[in-house]
Amino acid sequence: MPGRAPTRVSWKQVAAFRLSRHRLSERAPLAALSSVPGDMAGAQAQVLLAGQMSIWPRVKGARLRDVDSALWKERTLVRAWGMRGTMFLLPSDDLSVFVRGSARRAAYNLNWAIRHAGSKQDIDKLLDRVAEILEEPRTRTDLAQMLTESHGYKLKSKISGGWGDKRRVAHVKVGALSLSMGFLFHIIRARDVICSGPNKGTEATYIRADKWIHDWKDVSQEKAERELLVKYLKAHGPATINDFAIWEGLYMKDAKDIWSKEAENIVEVDMDGSKASILESDLSELESAKVDETVVRLVPYFDSFLLGHKYHLNIVDEKNRKKVYRSQGWVSPVLLVDGRAQGVWSHAQKKNDLEVHVTPFSKLSGQVSERVKEEASDLGRFLECSNVKTVIG
Questions:
Q1: DSSP readout, 176-222?
Q2: Which among 123, 163, 200, 209 counts the fewest CB atoms within 10 Å?
Q3: Final residue of a structural domain among 169, 185, 212
């Protein structure tokens, strides 16, 4: 708040606060499984297994089958595009907050399409057709086929897989543009809330959220943006506007606009000389935050705890940073000890056999090594592997 001197806190307090908010210092009960991705401001699931596994170190007794059941049977969890145009596992009750709250990124792409197509009316008409088709779970192949057969759109095949993928994919012609099915899913987020449905063979399906989620609740974009900022700060605070912009995938001017609407509820803190902000309602918890017992967790690749800020020196030292934050945006699975990266790890599963290989950045204490083995054993339980081998070194 203006005129108020920043409260001084240590990085240890910050780590303890974030560990608690991410449900890493104390696992949540199994009954809270579907709410935990909301507590961590989204479980990144561009790689579905990564999102599923990020729930494991946070929920006591959870198994992979429990996550699958929440996704595809109870539908209390949902996989959808959110921040940065990336797939997340999210609580169904809060899906509209995450999708509407991150819709400005989709709007950037929608406006680009309108400018280059030369007609807003033509783009709106196309997206209306897409929304009609997505009243049921549809694959990208289904969407392309129905657009051409039922609605008369012309298709062409182009190389457009991304990440070096040379496969040819269907594009729909609209005005002067050819838009891929994937791009249509991204720009429709500026208007509608879309989520994943169950796979059809080996292909993913997508459906309108109001047709998939029981008791669907929608919110306005303005309300969603403020609520999403609050969720971000609750999980990742203290943080800066720049951190928030990168996490959301926004231009700075848009991040500042959203932040300004919540500014009266935000205060600044001084973390050993670095300044950042937190919700005023969370300040007392931050000031009293501490780790009572060493927290050892194996978090999977792209874990939310690792992705909330521009700079990562509070998590990993510069010497080992590139072992965690690798090229092409890849984020390694990490051994966290009291909120800091003390190594990376990998796992290999073959039927009932699981091997967990941990590569520490430096020699681990006997206590931490034992805790690592306990965590690896619990991962075996999550994946329902009866034989677990842990290799450290």
A1: TEEEEHHHHHHHGGGTS-EEEEEEETTEEEEEEHHHHSTT-----HH
A2: 163
A3: 212
CA distances from 353 to 67, 102, 271, 308, 377 (A): 21, 40, 44, 34, 11
* 122 within a domain of the structure (yes/no): yes
Predicted confidence (pLDDT) per residue in 65-94, tens digit: 999 999 999 999 999 999 999 999 999 999
Secondary structure class of 158 (helix, strand, coil): strand
Q: How many domains does the chain have?
A: 2
CA-to-CA distance for 329 and 220, rounded, in angstroms? 32
Q: What is the pLDDT of residues 287-339, one digit of tens each?
A: 999 998 999 999 999 999 999 999 998 899 999 999 999 988 899 999 999 99
Domain boundary among 161, 189, 212: 212
**Is the distance from CB of 25 to CB of 288 less than 8 angstroms?**
no
Domain containing 131 equals 111-212
Between CA 336 and CA 317, with CA 43 as vertex, the angle to 5 degrees is 30
**Euclidean distance between CA atoms 50 and 319, whole angstroms:** 25
159 in a structural domain:
yes
- CA 58/CA 282 separation, integer angstroms: 21
% of the chain with per-residue pLDDT over 70:
97
335 in any annotated domain: yes
Joined together, the tokens standing for residue 274 give 């670095």
Q: Are 209 and 78 in contact (CB under 8 A)?
A: yes
- Whether 299 is covered by a domain: the verdict is no
Distance CA 103, CA 109 (A): 10
Helix spans in 237-365 (H): 241-248, 252-260, 283-288, 321-324
203: its two tokens: 């292909």
Average pLDDT over residues 256-262: 98
- What is the rounded distance in angstroms from the CA atom of residue 361 to the CA atom of residue 208? 45
